[in-house]
Amino acid sequence: MPFLLRAAIVGGGAYMVGKRVQGGRDQEAAQQQQIDELQAQQQEQQAAPAAAPSADDSMAQLAQLKSLLDQGVLTQAEFDVQKQKILMSM
Questions:
Q1: pTM for the complete prediction?
Q2: Largest CA distance in the chain
Q3: What is the C-alpha end-to-end distance of the chain, expressed in Å?
Q4: Any idea of the CA torsion for 25, 27, 30, 34, to the nearest 10 degrees?
Q5: What is the distance between the alpha carbons of residues 1 and 48, in angstroms, rounded to a whole number?
Q6: CA 42: distance to chain centroid?
Q7: Domain range for residue 69?
Q8: 50 membership: H or E segment, kind and range
Q9: Domain tally for the chain?
Q10: Which of 3, 46, 68, 77 could form a disulfide with 73 if both were Cys (CB 3.0 to 4.6 A apart)?
């Protein structure tokens, strides 16, 4: 009987560790998707410089950028660089 109890405890612990690892991977994937979306928006802006982005688009991008900074996805330096790019395109 002690063997079964020990096996249950070890199995339960392994299950919890696996869930925690998967949760971390899911969060990293979501953050990467947000970064990819922001980069795609910036590439679109650079590809068509003749069409200046509207102030609303720029403000939305700045808000998204700030959200990424607040979530810890971007560092302050990365935020500042991207913010400057958006402001220069206005």
A1: 0.44
A2: 76
A3: 72
A4: -120
A5: 71
A6: 16
A7: 2-88
A8: none
A9: 1
A10: 68
